[in-house]
Amino acid sequence: MTMPLRRTRGIRLALTGALLAGLTLLTTAGPALADDPSASASPAGDEAGPTEAGTTFRTATALKQGRSGTAQASAGDYLYWVFPADAGQRPTVEATVKLPESAARRGTSTWQVDVYDGLRRRQACMYGHQTRKAAADAATVELSCVLRPVRAWSEPWANDPLPGSYYIRLTVVDLPAADLGLPVDVEVKTSIKELGGGHDGGGALAEPLVPGVSVASAGETDDTSASGAPRTLATGEPEDGWASGWWTDRWLWTVGGGVLAALAAVFGYSLTRGRGRPGHVPPGV
To answer: Model-level pTM?
Structure first.
């Protein structure tokens, strides 16, 4: 009469192991996808970044995700770059300004980096050093801005970051008049952290907020223009393309939760149904 008992114990051990394995998978897979350093930023590759900056939104120099750009400018200029960011990503912008020799400067200066979305709405920084003051003897000043996670969809009245182009504007906001026009060297860099489906809000934009995308979509029926040339946008797009809008790692959590629920139901049934007929009870009783 020991065989049924051993079989029951084996089933319980198997179900317990499956439950523990499923819980371990769900508790470790999500953070691994979100915090994996290899997935936090796009590969930079060997391609050199741009060596100039625009002076307006319309002439902003395009940057690829994870790439850096440099420029030589004069103190007082407005410098613009633009890069793409997609849903589920958290962009970070870093800027370094190499100042002239201290002997040529007359006092302290205050530098600021701002980020605007495709609708040219200024986006707030979650944290970072968006504005910094440089002493009269400082050699460089470093700025940074970590944006909020980009959402796939938002209410019209909200100021949430949405997929599309993001403009970087770097300038000096406080400077002695005698220091205007002094040469400076600037380097900017963008990095992207993939956050996964935990930040999905449901819904999706019809088109990313990229200048000219609606005009291009209305005038073309495929990936080529009327002249036969491939369609290109001035501000580019992520290397893997824009998100499709329906796939998210939440599907993995949903399927995993269903599997765990089924295993828990079977395990609970095996615990409550008992061990069968006792050995001292004859059949038919």
So the answer is: 0.67
